[in-house]
């Protein structure tokens, strides 16, 4: 039963309330989902104005718009996502020329369709993010946008914002370029499919995707190079498996298994991090105000409380003036890797960390050992990414952002 408090109790009377709605049988999976939606006030429908706006703007781009963009439709571009994904907001392509990897990360140009201060923009702002359940999602944007015109579906022309990074064999970015583009994804790949090609050597998968095998191998090479560089900088990689809930045909939990994390996940993680860092650097250098994704290091008090615990397990937490560097923590994680106490130490260290957040001031990202970081790669499901897209769009045009315009982004 969903209800609300009518009157709080006093020392002489009990609190009073009233039932607003009967949700149903508490053992029904649908009712359980509805209870969570009600508890957190999650919106499940869009206003007529927002829906009308979405329908009117979810139209294929005309020749003039396409002609104004860098044409990447012939570039072998792919999306790599989970089996159940329906909205594809990032696509990647790779070449290797003159000893440099040319990585292109193309992200759905949601800002082209969702304009500031429209009814749809206001609802997206209120939602802030898509919310995911085991069997469904409550999207930030209507399906016409999230699963339709902005989703980088295979063999469909889509408008994107692209980052082209030229990276050497040490993981150093030698050149970075940003532009509006139009792409046509050549294939919708899954993490499992990529693993079968790169790890299992599955003959059937390799034959079916033979034109993509070499690009995927280059992606694997570059992802490993980028990861090794980040690890050397001190980027943290907690070895804590995520749980995946398996539902039966009636929607009831059937099993909870360890979610797979393979080289395909690593490829997308590394490429998205590289793109996010590049966009943050670009906007910072150009002097544009933006939203940074920041992460502070642990408090001195939390760290000092952990010292005796770690010593008891035979490990030393290297504190310098009450602080610890990401590189020191990463070294500790490497030292305990594969040992019985590994998971315990990972969990304890993770709990000592602060939560990452968005800030207009750049204070760096401790967990990624990054001095400049933002969120750019998921504008379909995260409103902060949409803001960054709008700001990056201004930089394409060389437009400045006046202080009074910041709230309109």
Describe the structure in brief.
Helices cover about 40% and strands about 20% of the residues. The chain is built from 14 helices and 15 strands.
Q: Which band does the percent of strand residues land in?
A: 15-25%
Number of distinct helices: 14
Alpha-carbon distance between the two ends:
40 Å
Provide the gyration radius in Å. 24 Å
Low-pLDDT residue spans: none
Question: Secondary structure elements and their pairing?
Answer:
Blueprint: E1 2-7, E2 16-21, H1 29-39, H2 48-57, H3 63-67, E3 70-71, E4 78-81, E5 90-97, E6 100-108, H4 110-113, H5 119-127, E7 131-132, E8 137-138, H6 143-149, E9 157-167, E10 173-184, E11 187-190, H7 191-200, H8 203-208, H9 210-233, E12 243-247, E13 253-258, H10 263-286, E14 292-294, H11 300-312, H12 326-336, H13 342-352, E15 357-359, H14 383-397
Parallel strand pairs: 3-10, 4-11
Antiparallel strand pairs: 1-2, 5-6, 6-9, 7-8, 9-10, 12-13, 14-15
Helix pairs in contact: 2-5, 9-10, 11-13
Keywords:
alpha+beta; 409 residues; 14 helices; 5-stranded mixed sheet; 20% strand
Structural commentary:
The longest helix is centred in the middle third of the chain and has 24 residues, at about 210-235. It contains 14 helices and 15 strands. A hairpin with a 4-residue loop joins strand 7 (about 130) and strand 8. Strands 3-10-9-6-5 form a five-stranded mixed beta sheet. It is an alpha+beta fold and about 400 residues long. The protein has helices at about 30-40, 50-55, 65, 110-115, 120-125, 145-150, 190-200, 205-210, 210-235, 265-285, 300-310, 325-335, 340-350, 385-395, and strands at about 1-5, 15-20, 70, 80, 90-95, 100-110, 130, 135-140, 155-165, 175-185, 185-190, 245, 255-260, 290-295, 355-360. The radius of gyration is 24 Å and the shape is globular.
């Amino acid at each position: 039963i969903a209800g609300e408090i009518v009157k709080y109790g006093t020392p002489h009377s009990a609190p009073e309330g009233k039932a607003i709605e009967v949700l149903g049988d508490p053992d029904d999976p649908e009712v359980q989902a509805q209870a969570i939606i009600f508890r957190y006030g999650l919106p499940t429908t869009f206003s007529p104005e927002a829906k009308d706006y979405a329908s009117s703007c979810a139209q294929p781009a005309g020749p003039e718009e396409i002609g104004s963009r860098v044409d990447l439709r012939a570039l072998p571009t792919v999306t790599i996502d989970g089996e159940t994904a329906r909205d594809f907001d990032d696509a990647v392509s790779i070449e290797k020329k003159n000893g440099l990897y040319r990585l292109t990360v193309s992200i759905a140009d949601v800002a082209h369709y969702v304009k500031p201060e429209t009814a749809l923009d206001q609802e997206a702002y209120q939602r802030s993010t898509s919310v995911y359940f085991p069997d469904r999602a409550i999207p930030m944007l209507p399906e016409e946008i999230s699963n339709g015109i902005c989703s980088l579906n295979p063999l469909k022309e889509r408008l994107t914002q692209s980052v082209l990074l030229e990276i050497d064999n040490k993981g150093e970015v030698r050149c970075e370029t940003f532009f509006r583009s139009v792409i046509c994804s050549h294939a919708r790949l899954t993490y499992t499919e990529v693993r079968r090609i790169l790890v299992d050597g599955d003959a059937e998968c390799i034959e079916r995707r033979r034109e993509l095998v070499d690009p995927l191998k280059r992606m694997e090479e570059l992802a490993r190079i980028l990861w090794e560089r980040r690890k050397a900088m001190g980027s943290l990689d907690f070895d804590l498996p995520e749980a995946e809930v398996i539902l039966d045909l009636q929607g009831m939990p059937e099993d909870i298994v360890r979610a797979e994390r393979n080289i395909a996940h690593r490829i997308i993680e590394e490429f998205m991090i590289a793109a996010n860092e590049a966009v943050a650097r670009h906007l910072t250098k150009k002097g544009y105000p933006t939203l940074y994704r920041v992460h502070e290091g642990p408090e001195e008090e939390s760290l000092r409380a952990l010292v005796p615990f770690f010593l008891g397990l035979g490990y030393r937490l290297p504190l310098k003036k009450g602080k610890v560097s990401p590189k020191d923590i990463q070294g500790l994680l490497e030292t305990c890797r594969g040992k019985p106490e590994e998971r315990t130490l990972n969990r304890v260290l993770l709990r000592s960390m602060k939560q990452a957040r968005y800030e207009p001031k750049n204070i760096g990202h401790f967990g990624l050992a990054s001095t400049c970081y933002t969120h750019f790669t998921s504008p379909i499901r995260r409103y902060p990414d949409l803001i960054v897209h709008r700001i990056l769009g201004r930089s394409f045009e060389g437009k400045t952002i006046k202080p009074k315009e910041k709230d309109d982004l």
